């Protein structure tokens, strides 16, 4: 059973790993979903403009994911566990 207080290294690893997965998967998913459903399907664009617009959407999503990671890293308010014993 996991301890209520998680080790700081494990907690940091889990946060970084989660954000790495988000940074890798969300732009790829947003590229293909916007290309297939929005630009090819709904708007009926040709291949090259559809790819360019979908890449633009993926870049915006990537920057949002990176911004979320930077915000989380900068404003992390978890109390630090002291190794000093009284």
Please report the number of helical segments: 2
What is the rounded Rg?
20 Å
C-alpha geometry: elongated
Structural class category: mainly alpha
For the record, give the distance between the C-alpha atoms at the N and C termini, rounded to a whole number.
27 Å
**Average of per-residue pLDDT values:** 87
Topology pattern, helix = H, strand = E? HH
> Count of DSSP E strands?
0
Q: Helicity, in percent? A: over 70%
How much strand? under 5%
Poorly predicted regions = none
**Main beta-sheet strand count, sense and barrel state:** none
Walk me through the topology.
Blueprint: H1 8-42, H2 47-74
What does it look like?
Helix 1 runs antiparallel to helix 2 (47-74). The chain contains two helices and no strands. It is elongated, with a radius of gyration of 20 Å. By secondary structure, the chain is an all-alpha fold. It has helices at 8-42, 47-74. The longest helix has 35 residues, at 8-42.
